[in-house]
């Protein structure tokens, strides 16, 4: 069996997605996601100019060998662009292998570990009262786990607060939108949100919160401590993870569970945090961390230390990543939770898929492969539209972490 052609499809059904389609001499094709939010074209060029020429004529069944070829072969290892390109190839090849076997992908990974996958949704509002209402709507839809983000008085365009109810979309302009941040105000306001949520709905549901890399280690520790009475499922990206030592300080001060990894690309980014048991959930995902082949390796390392998975699943991860992640989640023994931000109906139409949501859980389909396709004719109707992620500044104008 041979790879005969491969192409990159860029489409914008409400937001930009980059998709790789690999075709074979047996008529079977595979699809992989290569979307890098706000930097899409860099991955398009990487794939078209440097990766696709190496794929033609290769045996699509040699998934591990192709992964090693692209990772070691580039010489310049790691990084979000390289690893997304590798992920797209890897996922497309797993799709082909599973289609050839006539099996849903999770069967090739080792079969079912669970019947359904718990997902968390994003509730947000301009202030505490509207966020509490939004969480109520997610509870009514059957969610067991809900992330809550609120606007903060005095903070302009706080992270995580969308314009619509269901489709928070931060990459909202051709040039980065300027947003604000004030840690002191957040330290004061956010614990009040969670107090109100527990007061209103009790302790039956899992509540999550994303710090989005905003706090210093000590501030993160203070926030973790302040949130302890409200028993969060996790406090995510409490401080930037480039310096992983920082998490020792956070850990010494709080028992609030910690989740990190949506911007990690390889097992090397995760290694120290996992081995030193400084986190409870690893958020690396299929498209970000080198595809199924590499994420499996990360999850196996994590399982040795009782760290569980919590795959990133924002809207910039296409339905192809969502579908593949659901197969991974169905298999992975140390599963924690899966993030699920709904895609717009236009996106769902461009990417026909067989996964489904019911009462707070998702289920992957039983079709051979990862169960997600792309309607190329429809995709062509939505041309690429430049959109970048926002930036954040403190009140005195200092650049901060968005
Ligand atoms: C976020 C993301 O889902 C999350 O937890 O941190 O919304 C993140 O901001 C985006 O994926 C950036 O592209
Ligand atoms: Mg996050």
UniProtKB/TrEMBL annotation:
Residues 128-257 form the Mandelate racemase/muconate lactonizing enzyme C-terminal domain. CDD domains: RspA. Pathway: Carbohydrate metabolism; pentose and glucuronate interconversion. It comes from the Bacteria. This is D-mannonate dehydratase. SUPFAM superfamilies: Enolase C-terminal domain-like, Enolase N-terminal domain-like. GO terms for molecular function: magnesium ion binding; mannonate dehydratase activity. Belongs to the mandelate racemase/muconate lactonizing enzyme family. GalD subfamily. Its EC number is 4.2.1.8. Its cofactor is Mg(2+). NCBIfam families: ManoateDhtManD, PRK15072.1. Keywords: Carbohydrate metabolism, Lyase, Magnesium, Metal-binding. One of its GO terms (biological process) is carbohydrate catabolic process. It is an enzyme of class 4 (lyase). InterPro entries: D-mannonate_dehydratase-like, DgoD-like, Enolase-like_C_sf, Enolase-like_N, Enolase_C-like, MAND, Mandel_Rmase/mucon_lact_enz_CS, Mandelate_racemase_C.
């Amino acid at each position: 069996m041979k790879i005969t052609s491969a192409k990159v499809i860029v489409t914008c059904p409400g937001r930009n997605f980059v998709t790789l389609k690999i075709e074979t001499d047996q008529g079977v094709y595979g699809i992989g996601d290569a979307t890098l939010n706000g930097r899409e074209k860099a991955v398009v060029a990487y794939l078209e100019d440097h990766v696709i020429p190496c794929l033609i004529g290769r045996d699509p069944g040699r998934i591990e060998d192709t992964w090693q070829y692209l990772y070691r072969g580039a010489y310049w290892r790691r990084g979000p662009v390289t690893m997304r390109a590798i992920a797209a190839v890897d996922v497309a090849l797993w799709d082909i292998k599973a289609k050839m076997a006539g099996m849903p992908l999770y069967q090739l990974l080792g079969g079912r570990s669970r019947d359904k996958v718990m997902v968390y949704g994003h509730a947000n509002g301009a202030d505490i009262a509207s966020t509490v209402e939004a969480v109520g709507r997610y509870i009514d839809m059957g969610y067991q786990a809900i992330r809550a983000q609120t606007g903060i008085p005095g903070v302009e365009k706080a992270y995580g607060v969308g314009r619509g109810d269901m489709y928070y979309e931060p990459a909202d302009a051709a040039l980065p939108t300027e947003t604000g941040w004030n840690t002191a105000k957040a330290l004061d306001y956010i614990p009040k949100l969670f107090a109100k949520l527990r007061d209103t709905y009790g302790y039956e549901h899992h509540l999550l919160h994303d710090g989005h890399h905003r706090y210093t280690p000590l501030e993160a520790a203070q926030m973790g401590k302040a949130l302890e009475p409200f028993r969060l499922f996790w406090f995510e990206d409490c401080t930037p993870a480039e310096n992983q030592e920082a998490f020792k300080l956070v850990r010494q001060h709080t028992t609030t569970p910690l989740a990190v990894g949506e911007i990690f690309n390889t097992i090397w980014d995760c290694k120290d945090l996992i081995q030193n048991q400084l986190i409870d959930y690893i958020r690396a995902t299929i498209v970000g961390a080198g595809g199924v082949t590499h994420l499996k390796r990360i999850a196996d390392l994590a399982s040795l230390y009782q760290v569980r998975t919590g795959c990133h699943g924002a809207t910039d991860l296409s339905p192809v990543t969502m579908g593949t992640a659901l197969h991974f989640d169905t298999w992975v023994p140390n599963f924690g939770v899966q993030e699920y931000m709904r895609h717009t109906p236009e996106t769902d139409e461009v990417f026909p898929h067989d996964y489904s949501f019911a009462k707070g859980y998702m289920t992957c389909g039983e079709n051979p492969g990862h169960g997600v396709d792309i309607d190329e004719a429809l995709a062509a109707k939505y041309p690429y539209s430049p959109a970048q992620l926002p930036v954040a500044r403190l009140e005195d104008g200092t650049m901060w972490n968005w």
